[in-house]
Amino acid sequence: MRIDKLLANEGFGSRKEVKQLLKQGGVLKNETVIKDAKTHIDPESDTITVFGEPVDYKPFVYFMLHKPAGVITATEDNREETVIDLLEPEDQLREPFPVGRLDKDTEGLLLITNDGKLAHQLLSPKKNVGKTYYAKINGKVSQTDVEVFQKGVRLDDGYITKPAELQVITSDTESEIYVTITEGKYHQIKRMFEAVDKSVLYLKRLAFGSWELDSTLDKGEYRELDDEEIDYLKQLTTKK
To answer: Which of the following is catalytic: 103, 115, 156, 214?
Structure first.
């Protein structure tokens, strides 16, 4: 990796600003001053310092975002605000992307990372990673609905979903439920309830497996994952 790209990725400024930094002679590679922006370094083995400050290279970033309604789950869009727009500029440098998709009007837990392998495996139906949601439903959710979800729901296109766990919190003309699914078809939860003649009024994702939305994060806020959380998510992908 070129030294100017590394330092830009690590938040030391734009490529132009990094070049000025290098000219000042404050950047060292294994205690040797480097001034050429094109100098290649191995961030895994070389020791890089900037005016004595070690550069701690991390190839991947992992963020938990409390997605608000009204924001689309995409990396960029010409008209709509995206979840990536909610990140600070320095946290966008490594080109992270959302793992999976939450509808524009859906809130809750969203993983944002640039670890493509982890993202792919977390979303694989073969891994059976449960995604748990809280929802308000227009209609009385019954035990019959619970049993239908357990068996798999036939959607409007004929697809039969994998078994889902439906837990009723309150059941009335407007019901509250928790539902856990292990796949992510387009508008899946909304279509599952439509299949039993009901509609979703509000939807919020709460958890990926046992990895839960941080209750201290307000809508639109995010934070880095700690090592324990990263290890847990990686462990999820090793399940058969």
So the answer is: 103
E-strand stretches of 52-125: 53-54, 62-67, 97-98, 107-113
Matching residue, tokens 């060292």: 28
Average pLDDT, the chain: 93
Residue 103: active-site member: yes
* pLDDT tens, position by position, 173-202: 999 999 999 998 999 999 999 999 999 999
Helix (H, G, I), strand (E, B), or coil: what is residue 38? coil
Assign 185 to helix, strand or coil: coil
Distance CA 53, CA 85 (A): 29
- Here the tokens at position 48 are 């890089």
Q: Is residue 119 exposed (0-12), middle (13-18) or buried (19+ Cβ within 10 Å)?
A: buried
**CA separation for the pair 189, 193 (Å, rounded):** 6
